[in-house]
Design goal:
With 226 residues, this protein is mainly alpha-helical. It has one domain (18-164, 185-225). The protein is built from ten helices and no strands.
Length: 226
């Protein structure tokens, strides 16, 4: 006779269970993250926060870039929290969204006419002309050296971690699937690498936009050191 399985916590006990597992997962995760890359991530988030909140002074205007930086900051913070809790697929979904924001910011730098059309476009035009694939194609046609969220990058995240297929398994990063958050070394490394890279790229671009020369040098130096 097989042993009876313990009851799954219910009601408020399940909420307490989530908190306990999250704390245990975070305690295992944080020591595995490289201090140099954590520093770069922190600088990048600081840059996005200062730009989004006009911390160094308001530039006026429509605040389009400020809003994009704010969205990237929130997505980056949320992805980092999900990383520490062991929800890697979910974090990678948010990172893909940061990649889309990154491409819009690059388009603003490289094609002022297109970005003005994007700003004034209605919902139908945004879907038909300025979806993620269309923006990537615009940057590809310009041979943009700044683009990180390329078609292969976007496709790999979409097919492996976001799109649902008959083969979908939740959070399978270390040879088995997990329901709920759990520490997996491979998953933590994948998410941390992707998050640090995309946010550092955005941080450097944002410094140029907002003339944060001191933070640009600090972040560039940290990247070189790591």
């Amino acid at each position: 006779m097989s042993e009876a399985k313990p009851d799954v916590p219910n009601r408020l006990d399940h909420i307490a269970f989530l908190d306990k597992v999250g704390r245990l997962t975070a305690a295992r995760t944080m020591p595995t993250l490289a201090e140099e890359e954590l520093a770069s991530l922190g600088i990048s988030l600081n840059i996005l926060y200062q730009a989004a909140t006009c911390h160094r002074g308001c530039h006026g205007g429509a605040h389009m870039l400020e809003r994009l930086c704010g969205r990237a900051y929130n997505l980056g913070c949320a992805a980092f929290h999900l990383l520490t809790l062991g929800f890697y697929d979910e974090a990678l979904g948010l990172i893909r969204g940061i990649g889309e924001l990154s491409n819009i910011m690059i388009l603003a730098a490289e094609d002022p006419v297109a970005i003005q059309e994007w700003i004034s476009a209605d919902a139908k035009t945004l879907r038909s002309k300025f979806g993620p694939a269309q923006v990537r194609k615009m940057l590809e046609q310009k041979n943009s050296p700044l683009m990180y969220a390329t078609k292969p990058w976007y496709g790999e995240l979409s097919e492996s971690y976001i799109h649902v297929t008959p083969q979908t398994k939740p959070n399978q990063h270390s040879g088995r699937a997990w329901v709920g958050g759990a520490f997996q070394k491979e998953g933590a490394e994948k998410v941390f690498s992707e998050l640090a890279t995309i946010l550092c790229n955005m941080g450097l671009m944002t410094c140029r936009w907002f003339k944060f020369d001191d933070l640009f040098e600090e972040l560039a130096g940290e990247i070189r050191a790591s």
